[in-house]
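cron nightly-structures :: item 1 of 1
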Amino acid sequence: GQWDSFVDFMNNQHVAHLAVSNFSPRQLDICLNRGPEKGTESIIPTVNQLPYSIANHPPGIVEENNKRGVHIQSWSPLSSTLPRYKGVMKEVGDKYGKSAAQVGLRWIVQNGGSYSVQSKKASHFVEDMNVFDFELSQKDMDLLSGLSPPVGF
């Protein structure tokens, strides 16, 4: 199928690595269980881009990807988080001299993920990258991880 075509593309040296987006552990297993008996090499995607954030963090998703050797990268990590939890994120951020957005992005990093952001303002991009000079306490991590998604989420 499609994954086999991607593997062929890689084997023909058109790309160095393959990544996926929004794959569940079960879908990753389908890719990982390809092998010579199926006519293709088993290739591990390097990255699984997910809508991973304080507002959306299914239990065990990072661990399930890590078990398979796949790194999680959050796409649009603030779009659903800031509207819902900006107040509590700002309170946490005030303790560290950081913005609510920086708290949300640091939470992702401390949980073992990375993130992809976009901004039309250079100042926002700089702010979004300035999350490596502080660490959230375990108490703050637990607080943020324990925020409940809204009903219907």
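cron nightly-structures :: done
The first strand starts at residue 19 and ends at 21.
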